[in-house]
Backbone:
């Protein structure tokens, strides 16, 4: 064994304790750590020949790389829709690496059963019935990809072909309809061979990002019976808006369609009694995307996908090889997603759900929503800012009142980021350059609002 390896192995408990202390210092400093650190040019360094051992590598990281890492796990990181990692989720993630299980095969470990248990808990959490099955994937993009791949197979079923065998070309023209599709939907269509041009945007309700159900029915009727994929939204990224899922599902009575719901963070509205109505009808979807490293507050990367048509899912993703053993009545997870091997993403979620339960995660969701509403109220009361949409969930979309030009918004984003107290992202809503603040971190409380508002005002 290499000298550095054997030495690290002999001193592993001590080195892990040293690393644990370092990690604890990082976490305790999150409140004051710069929320964003604009990248700076770095000289390329050579690969070490002999290596420095774990202690040397830890010190090298501490000196060279760690100062450039953002405080994205902290309470004032409001860019994208990014959660942190609850204490239990963090421990689960550490143990994921320690145990290093590949859960896709049921030949050697109980890990797949743990994942199935977590999927069952999540299904219950989001109000999905037992007809829905699911699996873990890397993020919302992968979840949308899997859902749309199953939808593609369903289109083939309607046409009497197996796309998984014949290829996407056997389908002919494909139509995907959506009001305000996430960019990952376009990426998925490209990867699946359906093409970005298959996506047709449908008019939304006035002043909303939610699709107009009547306009959607007109678009479906224009297909004259040709099956389509409808991508509905449960929580849009700009304003947290929701499509009327029940109304869209009801269109299946008159038009052949596959209903895929992108509920990457909006599915968590089901935890709040005052917001659960927003996801009514989610159980009627054919496939659903939920991203856990958003409002689930588990570490990157972790998301789940659900579907009613596991038979089609297996047809798309099955991976038959003698060394994997014979197929069983309960399919191994290798047959459900693109990955043949992956980490046990479910363990972090298992720890967090076990530690805090439904009530603990509901408290995070409701506190984040209350903080978002409070920020919206404060911005609305300040004539220098203009709220562009009601705060429906956890996203605040706003702009400057006097000059919402792209250059002005970019300046504010960069100034806020360089100040280190806050991170928000730019966007455009109905042609207006804007800013968005997304509240999804378990550490964030209304006590952070003064600092958030001060950072925004200082950037004007």
Residues:
């Amino acid at each position: 064994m290499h000298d550095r390896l054997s030495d690290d192995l002999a001193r592993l408990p001590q080195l892990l304790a040293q690393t644990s202390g370092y990690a604890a210092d990082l976490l305790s400093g999150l409140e004051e750590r710069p929320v964003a650190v604009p990248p700076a040019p770095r000289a390329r360094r050579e690969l070490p020949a002999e290596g420095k051992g774990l202690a040397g590598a830890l010190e090298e990281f501490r000196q060279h790389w760690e100062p450039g890492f953002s405080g994205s796990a902290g309470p004032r990181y409001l860019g994208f829709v990014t959660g942190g990692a609850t204490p239990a989720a963090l421990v689960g993630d550490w143990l994921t690496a320690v145990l290093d299980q590949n859960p896709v095969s049921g030949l050697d470990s109980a890990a797949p059963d743990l994942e199935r248990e977590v999927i069952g808990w999540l299904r219950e959490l989001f109000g999905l019935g037992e007809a829905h099955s699911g699996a873990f994937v890397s993020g919302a993009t992968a979840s949308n990809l899997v859902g749309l791949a199953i939808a593609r197979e369903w289109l083939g079923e309607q046409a009497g072909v197996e796309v998984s065998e014949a290829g996407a070309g056997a389908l002919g023209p494909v139509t995907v309809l959506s009001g305000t599709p996430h960019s990952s939907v376009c990426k998925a269509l490209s990867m699946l061979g359906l093409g970005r041009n298959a996506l047709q945007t449908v008019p939304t309700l006035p002043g909303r990002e939610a699709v107009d159900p009547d306009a959607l029915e007109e678009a479906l009727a224009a297909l004259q019976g040709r099956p389509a994929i409808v991508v509905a939204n449960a929580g849009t990224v700009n304003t947290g808006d929701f499509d009327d899922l029940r109304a869209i599902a009801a269109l299946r009575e008159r038009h052949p369609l596959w209903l895929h719901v992108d509920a990457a963070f909006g599915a968590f509205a089901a935890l709040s009694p005052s917001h659960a109505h927003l996801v009514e009808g989610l159980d009627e979807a054919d496939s659903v995307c939920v991203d856990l490293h958003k409002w689930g507050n588990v570490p990157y990367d972790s998301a789940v996908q659900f579907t009613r048509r596991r038979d089609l899912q297996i047809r798309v993703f099955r991976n038959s090889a003698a060394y994997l053993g014979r197929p069983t009545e309960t399919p191994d997870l290798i047959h459900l997603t693109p990955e043949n091997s992956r980490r046990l993403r479910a363990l972090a979620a298992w720890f967090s759900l076990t530690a805090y339960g439904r009530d603990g995660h509901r408290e995070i969701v409701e506190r984040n929503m209350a903080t978002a509403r409070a920020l919206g109220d404060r911005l609305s009361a300040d004539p220098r800012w203009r709220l562009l949409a009601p705060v429906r969930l956890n996203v605040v979309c706003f702009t400057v009142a006097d000059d919402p030009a792209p250059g002005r918004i970019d300046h504010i984003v960069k100034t806020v980021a360089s100040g280190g107290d806050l991170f928000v992202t730019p966007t455009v809503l109905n042609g207006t350059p804007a800013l968005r603040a997304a509240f999804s971190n378990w550490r964030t409380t209304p006590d952070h609002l003064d600092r958030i508002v001060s950072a925004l005002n200082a950037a004007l």
In short: The chain is about 40% helix and 10% strand. The mean pLDDT is 96. Residues 235 and 266 are 4 Å apart (CA to CA). The first helix runs from residue 3 to 10.
